[in-house]
């Protein structure tokens, strides 16, 4: 399977683990041949499947003190999984990336360099994946870059790039904002409205993609990151504040962000009983108080050097929620759809969400534990952390970023056409904020954005001079000095495309339908074979009765004056003869009458030997009587032998009599012809010596009915005398 597909492998090295992602797309050279006008204006179509991803724990950063183990003990299982998916003949053309995020950003630069160098060496020595530049393929990416990749992935899946007319939010705006929160950091990326984009042009990134027709597509995007604002890092900062507040006077610290009655260590490990001299956290289940105590972590009191600012004194252009609709991934999804919400919730409503959180967090821990401990995943751990994560998410969203509180505050009315609103309503992205996990079955991950950028770089430019390369950098005309290229270039995969490749589709549903169709075809083929076997193994007299009924049904009626009722003319005649030959194979030949005449024609044997020979040939050869070649010869010879006494069961179609052109003998082929013309001549003389046979015309009919004579354009029928 494979000649027209491109593949890409990317490893997301996060703080808690490393996740493998595999993507596939059609080679641009092949895609251009069959693309419609609409598809030419779109980006390459990437596809992935659930089975093409795999995550292992812990994160790459945990190998900082033992870098030599990161390959065999961490990456090997992911590489093996990738090799099980990607065709062997495509591995060398498949790029591999490992991009580390917040977990690695927290390490000193020396340890970061040691890890990335060891990872590159391991991949080059133990795999055949394409890895031309380690600095580009194996790196610790900035938070801004991670946010930009996430923004690309979100708008790619939602259709904001390919179908801007369907996503008009007002004021000429058709893209969506992106929010991401992991364990160590949080990101934001969005395209400001026209006014803010002009006012803060120096703060934006120039992103350049390339559509299938080779023309550039440019966007101006703002992106930033807040290191330390992931849920795990925020929790550590929160516990540190508790220590500063209570440690001098208390051994057990009251924690309003833990369910009532839950006792843990400072690191979150549950304690079954009170231990003397050990600092412990005791849950009080006061969610309102939890919100108040997590608010200071936002850093809203930090000085803002470049107004406006959102969190921690970092500059962010003003967000116009009339047109900027955000989707949130990772913790934004898990925290709103874990223990607090059903998986099928389509919209985020602040009022109802906060009410569910309050009800959950006010319960006793024993009651919560009883309902969550039976889950396949670590439900107890999730329930233990849920209240703090919910308070942190609410504060970041509404107090930090300023997302309107749906259900409490008035929501700005989008200035959009009715058609665009209906299309957005189908996907559920009309609100200012919407948590998502997958869009159209594909996980929303920043890794997809990186691979979309790479695939777009493989499209040949519309003009020979590539003045608009694919990538991103500072917001200036042309190619900025800090431009980061996509890392790909267009190269033909060759013209070796099999028919099977052309029939293969990108969509998983079509693949499934194809598999179902093949299964159905195999089932009917099995049933047909089973029926044929049943016919073959029936007793001979039963097969003959069935054959007689079929033959009478299809046999042409005898007309007055016809000397040969079996000899049809045209298509009907040929069909009747072929049906008779086919029926002979399936049901067996009829026992001949006039045994004496048959014995005089055949050199040796009797009628019973003739029938046995015919059965042996049919069982040993697979001829189709619909063929015009040797198989038709066998079937027609069989029909002639039943009427005139010639042997068809022992016929060998491979033999051709070249003496026929001299009028010496009939070209009828028989297993009894092992002596050549001597046998045929002798048989003819014996027929001539018998007045009874001579008058009956048996010899003439046997020659005239020979299929070999009728097939060859160089032969003419033997003149009757």
Q: Brief description of this entry?
A:
Helices cover 42% and strands 12% of the residues.
Q: How would you explain this protein's 3D organization?
A:
- This protein starts with a strand and ends in a 10-residue tail after the last helix.
- The strands form four sheets. An eight-stranded mixed β-sheet has the order 15-14-7-8-10-9-18-19.
- The protein is built from 27 helices and 19 strands.
- Among the domains are: 164 residues, 2-Layer Sandwich (Nucleotidyltransferase, domain 5), CATH 3.30.420; 156 residues, no CATH class.
- Helix 20 packs across helix 23.
- The protein has 721 residues and is α/β, with parallel strands linked by helices.
Give the strand line-up of the largest sheet.
Answer: 15-14-7-8-10-9-18-19
Shape descriptor: globular
Structural class call reads alpha/beta
| Overall pLDDT confidence | 75
Would you report the number of β strands?
19
Radius of gyration: 41 Å
CATH topology of the domain at 1-141 and 445-460 and 491-497: Nucleotidyltransferase, domain 5
Unreliable parts: 411-421, 493-517, 558-580, 582-721
């Amino acid at each position: 399977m494979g000649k027209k597909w491109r593949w890409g492998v990317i490893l997301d090295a996060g703080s808690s683990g490393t996740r493998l992602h595999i993507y596939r797309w059609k080679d641009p050279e092949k895609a251009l041949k069959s693309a419609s006008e609409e598809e030419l204006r779109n980006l390459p179509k990437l596809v992935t499947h659930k089975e093409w991803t795999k995550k292992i724990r812990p994160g790459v950063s945990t190998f900082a003190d033992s870098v030599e183990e990161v390959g065999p003990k961490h990456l090997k299982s992911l590489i093996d999984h990738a090799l099980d998916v990607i065709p062997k003949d495509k591995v060398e053309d498949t790029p591999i990336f490992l991009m580390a995020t917040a977990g690695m950003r927290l390490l000193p630069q020396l340890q970061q360099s040691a890890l990335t160098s060891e990872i590159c060496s391991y991949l080059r020595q133990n795999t055949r994946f394409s890895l031309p530049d380690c600095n580009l393929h194996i790196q610790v990416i900035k938070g801004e870059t991670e946010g930009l990749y996430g923004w690309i992935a979100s708008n790619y899946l939602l259709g904001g790039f390919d179908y801007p007319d369907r996503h008009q939010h007002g004021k000429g705006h058709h893209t969506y904002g992106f929010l991401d929160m992991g364990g160590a950091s949080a990101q934001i990326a969005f395209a400001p409205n026209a006014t803010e984009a002009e006012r803060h042009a120096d703060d934006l990134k120039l992103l350049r993609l390339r559509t299938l027709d080779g023309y550039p597509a440019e966007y101006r995007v703002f992106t930033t990151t807040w290191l330390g604002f992931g849920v795990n890092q925020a929790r550590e900062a929160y516990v540190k504040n508790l220590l500063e507040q209570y440690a001098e006077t208390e051994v057990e610290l009251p924690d309003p962000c833990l369910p009532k009655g839950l006792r843990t260590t400072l690191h979150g490990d549950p304690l079954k009983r009170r231990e003397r001299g050990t600092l412990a956290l005791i849950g009080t289940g006061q969610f309102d108080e939890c919100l108040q105590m997590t608010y200071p972590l936002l850093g809203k009191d930090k000085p803002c050097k470049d107004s406006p600012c959102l969190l921690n004194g970092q500059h962010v252009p003003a967000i116009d929620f009339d047109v900027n609709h955000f989707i949130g991934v990772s913790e934004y999804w898990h925290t709103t759809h874990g223990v607090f919400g059903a998986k099928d919730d389509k919209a985020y409503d602040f009022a109802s969400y906060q009410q569910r959180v309050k009800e959950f967090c006010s319960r006793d821990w024993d009651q919560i534990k009883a309902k969550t401990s039976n889950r396949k995943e670590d439900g107890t751990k999730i329930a233990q952390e849920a209240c703090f994560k919910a308070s942190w998410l609410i504060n970041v969203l509404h107090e930090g970023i300023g997302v309107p509180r749906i259900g409490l505050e008035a929501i700005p009315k989008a200035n959009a056409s009715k058609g665009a609103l209906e299309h957005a309503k189908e996907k559920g992205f009309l609100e200012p904020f919407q948590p998502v996990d997958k869009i159209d079955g594909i996980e929303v991950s920043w890794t997809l954005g990186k691979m979309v950028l790479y695939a777009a770089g493989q499209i040949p430019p519309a003009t020979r001079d590539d003045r608009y390369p694919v990538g991103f950098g500072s917001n200036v005309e042309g190619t900025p000095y800090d431009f980061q290229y996509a890392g790909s270039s267009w190269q033909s995969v060759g013209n070796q495309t099999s028919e099977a490749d052309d029939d293969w589709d990108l969509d998983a549903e079509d693949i499934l339908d194809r598999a179902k169709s093949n299964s159905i075809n195999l089932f009917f083929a099995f049933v047909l074979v089973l029926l044929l076997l049943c016919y073959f193994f029936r007793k001979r007299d039963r097969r003959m009765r069935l054959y007689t009924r079929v033959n009478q049904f299809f046999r042409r009626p005898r007309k007055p004056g016809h000397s040969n009722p079996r000899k049809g003319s045209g298509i009907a005649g040929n069909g009747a003869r072929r049906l008779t030959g086919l029926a002979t194979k399936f049901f067996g030949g009829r026992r001949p009458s006039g045994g004496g005449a048959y014995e005089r024609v055949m050199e040796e044997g009797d009628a019973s030997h003739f029938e046995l020979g015919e059965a042996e040939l049919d069982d040993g050869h697979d001829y189709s009587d619909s063929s015009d070649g040797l198989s038709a010869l066998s079937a027609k010879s069989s029909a002639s032998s039943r009427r005139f006494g010639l042997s068809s069961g022992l016929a060998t179609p491979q033999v051709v009599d070249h003496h026929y052109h001299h009028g010496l003998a009939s070209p009828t082929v028989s297993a009894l012809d092992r002596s050549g013309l001597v046998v045929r001549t002798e048989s003819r003389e014996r027929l001539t010596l018998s007045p009874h046979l001579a008058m009956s015309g048996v010899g003439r009919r046997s020659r005239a009915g020979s299929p070999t004579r009728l097939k060859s354009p160089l032969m003419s029928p033997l003149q009757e005398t």
